[in-house]
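Continuing the series of single-chain predictions for the mutant panel. This is the parent chain; the variants come on the following pages.
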Amino acid sequence: MMLEKETSMSTMLFSAIFYGLCSGSMNFINKYLMTSLSFPFPSVMILFQLIVLAVSLKLFKNLGFINLVPYDKKNATTLAVQSILYSANTAMALIALNGMNVPMYNALRRCSPLASMILAFIVFTKKPTKLIFTSIIIITFGAIIAAHGDLSFDLKAYAYGSISVLLMGLNLTMLQYNGTERFYSTNDLLYINALNCIPIMGFICFLQADEIMKVSVFDDTRFIPTLILVVLSGCLLNYSMFLCTTVNSALTTTCVGVIKSVATTIIGMFAFGGVIPTVSFVIGQSLNFIGGILYAYSKYVQQKSKTLPS
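Parent structure:
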């Protein structure tokens, strides 16, 4: 049995910042393609991203730059649950966003750290420290307060949003489990997951084929360069998310997502408008940010204590 490797604090920090930057920039690139160029088909983007990821990783392996486990029945089956959760999380996130207003969606998605913390306790029997627990509660309350003025009870929307949060937590927790307990590398997880998910996303695109062919954006000279940028950025985002989750934890990935969400919301508010900075919005965003910083500090203290001589 392989021994678990110790990860340096610099590696953990780099993976978290890398994921935050990739995730934040991806929001604006996606928004440009989906709204400015009127191409609201994320399934197409995800399918191309998965294909490029699988081909690129296989090419890097053949050139001797990386090692990869073979794509065989054993590995495909072992990571089948991971791939199903990845696809379901992606699909439900799109359905949820389409079925509710953005503030409601963002509020529920920022409850993901709470779901990840609970799942980490169930799956890994990992009890959070008092600082980590406090930071997650602050983030959750901040999410609720930030969207309080915009929330209106809609059972269907809440159901979609809640399932999306649960699936995201399950997806990241399973990813962490496959990395830390089954000892798959980040590249292995990306490669097997991409090949497993290509048929699923291809089927979704097939169902949307008639709608896709009706759009007029194909004549726009900006479309192909933007689509290429989205696909390549999406590949980096997937790699950074898998890396952050396997190097750190599912909980860290969701907390980085919260801090990123606060930053992109503020930038988007000034760049694109559409958000009125109410008192509840400002308080909620501030709590989200404070909770995220407190979580980062608690992880620093936790990691530092491991390096101290006993």
